[in-house]
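User: I'm writing a tutorial on reading structure tokens. Could you give me a worked example: one chain, its sequence, then its tokens, then a sentence or two explaining what the tokens reveal?
Assistant: Sure. Here is the example chain.
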Amino acid sequence: DPRYFALFVAAGLLGIAGELAVAWLWRTFFRVPIWTYSYNSVLAGHTSTLNFLPWAIGALLLHTTGRLVGALAGIDIGTDAAVSRAMLVATLAFIVGYIVGWPLRRLTRARTGEFSKPAFAVFCLPIAVVAIALAIFCAPAWPAVMLALSIVGFLTEYGYGRSMSLFFEQGLWTYNHWKIDSGHTSFVTLPLWALGGLYFHFIAVCLGL
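And here are its predicted structure tokens:
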């Protein structure tokens, strides 16, 4: 099916664009980058030219997870109407969450660019707003879908990064906060994968998958 090839290409490119957006949003809160790439890094180490393939493959896994969990939860997350509504709700909710969170960051150490638990909680506020909004305006089981995407994304990223360390002298990337296994992954990625999983699921459905 050529749509899978389209997803492969789109996810590879949009995955890199997405992680650059996350890195930029992170730097609006915190001075130290969320991650640093070791090989073929570009744009101050925020991404790498090696990332096309893992994003392309990971998108298919995340999309499959979303469809499976959605089916088990009995919600419609695959038709055009349902996805269009969910995409609109998620986009508006994220914008609202960021607008609310931006001034709140000044109540935490993020006001000076420092990382802390309260500051990270405020940074994740838009993701929480997305989950709540999807549950209210689309289907109550959407947060369960996001949770599943978070877990699958977290484990997939760690498994890929850890396995690549067998072939490279350094890890392909290093997380700079709440590190796990020398920075191959981090606890900060769990909420980010909930949002990232939605991102790739929406891309796949928009391509007709």
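What the tokens reveal: The first strand starts at residue 35 and ends at 37. The chain has a mean pLDDT of 88.
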